Amino acid sequence: MLLPTTLILLASLVQAATLTLKNSRFNITSKDATELRAEPLSVTEKLSSPLKLDRTDILRLTFQVVEKDNGNNVQPHQAFLRFYDETTDEEGIQPVRVSNTGKGKFELNMAKPPTSLPPTGSAPLRVSLLIGSFVHSPLKVELFDLHVPASHPPAQHTEEASYHPLPPLGHTFRPEQKLPPRIISASFTGLALAPWLVPLVLWGKVAPSTPRLFSPHILPFVTTLALFEGLLFWYWIDLRLGQVLLYGGILALPTVFAGKHALASIGERRLGLARK
Fold first, then answer.
1. What domain count does the chain have?
2. Are 141 and 65 a contacting pair, CB within 8 Å?
């Protein structure tokens, strides 16, 4: 029973161990490697004066992770730098590689800023170091405030205008069609039917010398002609052109046969009258 109890106590002591930083400092250099500023960093207090970087400056950060109690070097499982903008609530997380000796190094080159850096304006970024370990308590260190050049506005996408809200569509309906007076409608109806007067007049003049209209040889042909007239009237009030062509093509076959039969019967009748 002594061995398991000892292991549990050792595990609890390791779990309770805390981390800290040693030899943490930063330096800022210009494009020509001129050192502009260099100071050590504290674990307990954030740097009082904020840092400022121009578009060609380079910020370098170095530190070493150790156990607070005995100063042993620790390689954490995760280490991140957090850049946070309080005004826009935007943040960026940049991983930091830490060696097995606990030494970590980070470089921020403003000529080529990382994509993890959040969009920036006039407000400074709060920079903090986050360290996590499976066998130690996590560590968060507020490092400093950082002023960086404002971000350029993103380039407008070629199809951005297609996703903007459009004004609502409005449609004005035309007023209902007004019907003409009945006298005018009746007059134009009579005008449309007037051409029928011509065949009726002609029929009255030639009827005595021709077969009767209701003869079984003539009636089918006259019926098919009447159906054609009815088809045209139906097209006028309801049908489409394709339907008229279809029905007219079907009706044309009996019309042709009925017309041939009617002409043949008229020819035979006239031939019989000529022989007499």
1. 2
2. no
pTM over 0.85: no
C-beta of residue 144 within 8 angstroms of C-beta of residue 125? no
Could you give the CA distance from residue 179 to residue 30 in angstroms, rounded to a whole number?
88
For residue range 107-124, list pLDDT tens digits in order. 999 989 888 889 888 889
CATH classification of the domain holding 45: 2.60.40
Looking at the DSSP assignment, which residues form a beta bridge with residue 49?
A: none
Report, as ranges of residue numbers, the positions in the chain whose pLDDT lies below 70: 1-16, 199, 202-214, 267, 269-276
Closest CA to 253 of 228, 218, 216: 228
Helical ranges in 194-240 per DSSP H = 197-206, 219-237
End-to-end CA distance of the chain: 147
What dihedral do alpha carbons 219, 221, 222, 225 form, nearest 10°?
A: 160
Tens-digit pLDDT profile for residues 231-249: 888 888 888 888 989 998 9
Question: Cβ(62)–Cβ(103) under 8 Å?
Answer: yes
Range of the domain at 200: 183-275
